[in-house]
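Hi P.,

Sorry for the delay on this. The queue was packed all week, but I finally got your sequence through. Input first:
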Amino acid sequence: MRRFVFTSGIILSLALALWSFSAAGDDLTEGTPLHINEVTLYKEFLLTSEKGTQNISLYSLTPQGEIKRLRKWETEDEPTGITTDGNIIYATTGGARGGVVVIQPEQESAQQFIPTGRGACSPILNAEKTKLYVCNQFQTSLSEIDLSSLKVTREVKVLREPKNALLTQDGKYLLVANFLPVGRANQENVASAISVISTSDFQKVKDITLATGSNSLRGMTLSSDGKYAFVTHNLGRFQVPTSQLQQGWMNTSAMSVIDLQTMEFGGAILLDEVDRGAAGIWDIQCTPEKIITTHSGTHEISIIDYKAFVQKYEGVPDKSSLAYDLRFLVGLRQRIPLVGNGPRNFVLKEQQAYIPTYFSDTLNIVNIQIPTEKTTTLMVHNRMESQVEKGEKYFNDATYCFQNWQSCNGCHPGDGHNDGLNWDLLNDGIGNPKNCKSMLYAHLTAPCMISGVRENAEGAVRAGFKYIQFHEVTEDIAVCVDEYLKQLKPVPSPYLIDGQLSEKAKKGEAIFKKYDCDYCHSGPYFTDMCKHRIGEDVEFEKGWDTPTLREVWRTAPYLFDGRAATMEEVFSVHKHGLEGKKISKEEKDALIEYVNSL
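Then the structure:
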């Protein structure tokens, strides 16, 4: 048995002192990146969720910033979030069998697993610590778990890829952040929304749509006075050609305000400045005096004077103008650079912010009242990065962009996927926006872009840095990004049953072949990698590049300009590939089921 003591002389609680620690004891990880994707407090300790090692780890921390790992628990699948009631630890895992791992800290291993759904993440407890709520990103749902029975009692559907949630102070409502927009992309207003769920009957009350262009919703918090909820997200300016970056021409980073009295959208506050972006906005938390946000693309935090902010915000008569006001936070906000790369989620303890960096495993400890008072410590000894890990870092790093306005992640969030918007790139003309594509299998399904204008993905990566980031990168950086994108793996479809096609989807597979869908969508990636003239408004002489259908269930909207919100619309409204063919509703439904299962 070992006893651990803080430098300040405070003896750890008896229960913790009597733990039987793993062989690693107080050693930190050697070499392998942690990639911490969530951090919270457990008593006086830091509790982390680590994607890189698939561990939940507990660390002691001295006032001088010295860190020691006390304990770790391995998870079967990638951990995506953590919370604790002060005794038991609840960790979500996001694999094909998504759910909650229940950890008794005094035990060597996890005690129980509660399945909730694919992509389980963002666990939150109610005030009484009797219920646990979990977002199921790829099931498009929110689960409620009764902690006395450790069983899911209720589930409610939301809009699209819920990745975060919070409870109002009175516990009556859950606000759920839908990561991406739903609906067609070829319309004037395209934006993600916040779903409001009543905790009494567990039904959706309403959806609060944010400002046009809002996507990639990440951080959520309540103001200390309970008046507002704040949501961090990207704000894409998809209505204009991608001809420049100055003054947030393509992408800006925003904090949306939700009025909790009316449950209405208030306005979108830009965190960027006139001549410098604040890309990669991620987590957000509040104290009575401050609002703190992380910027994972520019490796810094913003600290905003809350009272001054509210006074100025409430005095704005037309709050829709805030989505274009790069000067609003002048005099209200400090930008504090951090050590390391990629600050994402963080935790507050009194006046200290504990901020691990995702791509360097550096822990920054910042005094939010006196931000110049900060310390840093490394959480991994002799850290080593593979080409793939370096590529993911560069993909998310806005310092490889003119004035730091965006990274590749800006248009391809969530591990290189699509943002649900149309963009008017200049590589195939102007005034002809195309729907953003996922980067999954891009290196295996050349040519690239919907128009096929790029010969291969390698060329597209380098052109993206040059013509979208307006930055020239070295070849070794571009190669690392190639390697990162090449290793992207599809998430198994939620339409599958135990990893297999349903009976309905099996019928759909036969119909897929019956109506010659496999003429274009053939081979292991369901593309012949050729161009075809199909549908209306064919812009190019040779037609459109044939996209892969792998993981198509999560890449809506569809067709070249996002004119189809769902696969149902692809076949029923636009009759894609079915022109002049007689197909019954039953056949069409089975076909949709099959394609969505790929």
